[in-house]
Amino acid sequence: MTPSPKPESPELNALRGVGGLGLEAVRGTGALALVAARTVLGLPRLERRELTRALVQFGYDSLPLAMATAALAGVIVVLQSGLYIQRFGARAFLGWASGYGVLWEFGPLLLGLIMSARIGARNAAELATMQVGGQIEGLRGIGLDPFAILVAPRVVAMELSMLAMSTFTFMVAILFESVAALFTLDLPLRTFFGTFAHMLSPLDIAGGVVKTGVFGLAISLVSTAVGLSARGGAQAVGRAAASAVVQSCAAIFVLDFVLTLLLAGWMA
């Protein structure tokens, strides 16, 4: 009679799980570094028609959603912060507080999450479809570089779209914050924009723009790496789209933590 195998200890299973996560992290970091390096090499031969198409899809088509989200976020920030502002008798500082929150946190974070769901998933699905359909390999077969034709235009378009939309979303959010403060807290627009202008500096705007640009680069690289690594049939396309959203959102939150520490320390 063959003896039954000895069950593995919980400690060994936990160690194996940690090791697996470590290998996945190293593998993912390597894939991102490879995509970034090949994208940089493909920039001089970037396909301009693909860049134009990507700019329309990534930027122009996303603008209405970004504007609507910015308007709602601005109103919600004022409604939420207004409770504490009134409690401590600090209504005059609402312009500074709400503007600081939008520029440094809510604006970049919401825009990044929207774009990761709308564009990151789409980018990963399109590249995964071409990968499993053999189109990527076909381009290599006729001597064309997929990174110059497909990847570099998308990365550049995502970066330009995020930077451009950050300006519009910040303006819309702050405008709706001032209107919400006027109607809900009876705070004059002059008082709102007075503290906003006197207590915030151009560096605060630059901090939000830097965060948005870094988030856009992370979304484009993560979704591209996930799409190009897809293997299998139609199910691989769905998995790539879902994985791109999850990984992009995780990258955004990690980068937000790191950038907040670095930029806050630099500006202190």
Properties at a glance:
0% strand, 268 residues, mainly alpha
Please provide a written account of the structure.
This protein has nine helices and no strands. By secondary structure, it is mainly alpha-helical. The chain is globular and about 70 Å long. The protein starts with 9 loop residues before the first helix and ends with a helix. The model has no long low-confidence stretch (mean pLDDT 85).
Q: What would the principal axes of the Cα set say about the shape?
A: globular
| Low-confidence segments | none
Number of strands: 0
| Helix percentage range | over 70%
Q: In percent, how much strand structure appears in the residues?
A: under 5%
- The H-and-E topology, N to C, reads as HHHHHHHHH
Number of helices: 9
Radius of gyration: 23 Å
Which structural category fits the helices and strands?
Answer: mainly alpha
Distance between the termini: 72 Å
- Average pLDDT metric: 85
Could you describe the largest sheet, including whether it forms a barrel? none
Transmembrane segments: 62-81, 93-114, 163-185, 205-228, 240-267
Pfam families: MlaE
InterPro entries: Permease_MalE
Protein name: ABC transporter permease
Secondary-structure map with pairings?
Layout: H1 10-42, H2 48-60, H3 63-87, H4 94-132, H5 135-141, H6 146-184, H7 189-199, H8 202-228, H9 234-267
Helix pairs in contact: 1-6, 1-8, 2-6, 3-4, 3-6, 4-6, 4-7, 4-8, 4-9, 6-8, 8-9
Give a short synopsis of this structure.
The protein is mainly alpha-helical. The chain has helices spanning 10-42, 48-60, 63-87, 94-132, 135-141, 146-184, 189-199, 202-228, 234-267. The model has no long low-confidence stretch (mean pLDDT 85).
